[in-house]
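[#protein-structures] MJ: dropping 1,3-beta-glucanosyltransferase here for a structure pass
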Amino acid sequence: MLLHSALLALGATLAAAVQPLEVQGQYFVNPKTGNRFQIVGVAYQPGGSAGYDKKAGRDPLSDPDICLRDAALLQIMGVNTIRVYNVNPDVNHDKCASIFNAAGMYMVLDVNSPLVGDSLTSYNPWESYYAAYLNRTFAVVEAFKNYPNTLAFFSGNEVINDEKTGATVPPYMRAVTRDIKNYIKKHSTRPIPVGYSAADVRSILFDTYNYFQCSLKGDDGDMSKGDIFALNSYSWCGESDFKKASYDQLVSGFTGNSVPIFFSEFGCNEVSPRVFTEVGTIYGSQMDTVFSGGVVYEYTQEKNNYGLVDMRDDGSATLMKDFLSLKAQYAKLNFTEIQGKKAPSTAAPAPPVCDSKLITTDGFNSNFTIPVLPPNATEIIENGVSPKPVGKLVEIKDWKVKFTVKNPDGTVISNLAVKPLADDGVNAPGTNTDSGTQAGTGTSTSSSPSASASKDAAARPGAVVLPAVAMGALAVLAAL
Ligand SMILES: *[C@@H]1O[C@H](CO)[C@@H](O)[C@H](O)[C@H]1NC(C)=O
Ligand SMILES: *[C@@H]1O[C@H](CO)[C@@H](O)[C@H](O)[C@H]1NC(C)=O
Ligand SMILES: *[C@@H]1O[C@H](CO)[C@@H](O)[C@H](O)[C@H]1NC(C)=O
Ligand SMILES: *[C@@H]1O[C@H](CO)[C@@H](O)[C@H](O)[C@H]1NC(C)=O
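AK: finished. C-alpha cells for 1,3-beta-glucanosyltransferase:
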C-alpha cells in the first residue's frame, strides 16, 4: 500500500490499515485474500442533511470526538462499512477517516450535497451540469482517494424517482459518472468504483439499472458505465419474507449482473421497533450470489424516525431498541462464511449492449448519446482540482470515547472505546465486545405488515430533506 508505506518511511506511527477493495466483475473483492466482500453497513449522517454545513466547515466526518464515539458503537454493532451522504471536500477528514479505518470500516461516499450547485437536479438536469459542479465532485475524490478505506463513490442518489425524471436525468447521470471515473483514472493511484444509488421505484428500477449498466460503444462507453449499482429499498417491513417483501423480484431482475449490486439503504420503519429480519435473508443463499450486502438506514435518530442511536446536543447518546435488535441479527450471521467466499474464477456476465429496447417504460430516456463535458471541465480533469484537498491517514493517540453513552434501559456503557484492528483487519461482530452493552434480543412481538414496496418519493429517507427539517436538525447540531 503506497500511501501507508510512504508515511511509515517518514517515521510516522500509524494504525494499521484496511486493505483497499476492488471490483472484480459482479463482486467486491479483497485482492489480498481473493475473498468476496459483503457490505454490512450503516448510513452515517449525524444531524441529517444539515449535518453538512458549508459555512461552519462541518460535515459528518469533521469532528473526531463524535467519530470516535460512533466508530466504537458501530464496531460493537459489527458493521464493516458506513455510507456518508454529504461531505465537504474542504474540511479535514483525516482523523475521522483514520478512526473508521482503524475500526475496520470502509466508507461509501456520495459526491453531492443538497445545496444548490452541489448536485445534479432532477428537473432540467442540463442546467446543473457545469464545470463548478463537476469541480465539487472531483474535490470529493481528491479529499478521499488516499484513504485505504474509501470503498466507492456515488455519483448520484435518487435523482431519478419517477417517470418524469427518468425522461431527463439518465444521460446526465451517465455523464457525471463518466467524468468522475475519468478524474479518478487520471489522479488516483488506485481505481475507486463509481456508481448510482437508485430509489427502489419498481416501475422504473430496472430501466434505471439497465441504462447505467449497459455497454456503450465509443470513447464514452466504458467510462460512463457505472462500476456498481445500489438501491434504497424499503419493501421488507417487520416480520416479512423473501417473497412477501418482493426481494425475489429484485434477485430475478438483477440476476446476471455484471457489476456489484447492494442495498444503499434498507430498514423499513413501518413496524416499530424494527426487527431487521431481512438481515438473515440479505446475506443468505437466496440473495448473496446477486447482492453484495447492504447499508441500514440510519445511524442517528432524526425526525424521520429511522435511528439506531439517539444523539444529544452535548455529545452524549442513548442506544435505541433498534440498535440492539440489529446487533442481534448480525450476531446470528456466520461472518467467517459470509466474508470467506472466494471470488469466482470465471468472468462475470457481460453487460447488455445499450439499446433503446432495454428500456421498457414509456417516456423513460432511451437515448444513449451522453452529453459532452461542459466548458472548462476538461482542464480540471487534465490538471486536477486546484487547490487539491488532500487527505491522509494520521495517528490517533486516544481511543477512549469522551461522551456518556447509555443502553436503552438507561445504564451507562463503561469503558467505551474503539478497538484498533491489526493490518488488513475488517470489523465483524465480536471484534469489540464491550461488556457494558446490553445483549440484543432479535425477537419481535410485532405483527406482520403488508409488503408495501412503493413509497412516495417525498417520504423516502434518501430524498432531499425539506428545509424545515434541515433547519431543525441544524439547530440541534449548532448546540454541540
Ligand atoms: C474547485 O474545488 C476546490 C476544492 O474544493 C476549490 O478550492 C476551488 O475553488 C474549486 N474551483 C472552482 C472553479 O469551483
Ligand atoms: C461458520 O462457517 C465456517 C466456514 O464455512 C465453518 O467452518 C464454521 O463451522 C461455521 N460456524 C458456525 C458456528 O456454524
Ligand atoms: C439523443 O440525444 C442527443 C443529444 O441530446 C440528440 O442530439 C439526439 O437528437 C437524440 N436522439 C434522438 C433519437 O432523440
Ligand atoms: C472558463 O474558461 C473561459 C475561457 O478560458 C474563462 O474566461 C472563464 O473564466 C472560465 N470559467 C471558469 C468558471 O473557470
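MJ: nice. DSSP finds 13 helices and 14 strands in the chain.
AK: one more thing. Residues 1-12, 441-480 have pLDDT under 50 and may be disordered.
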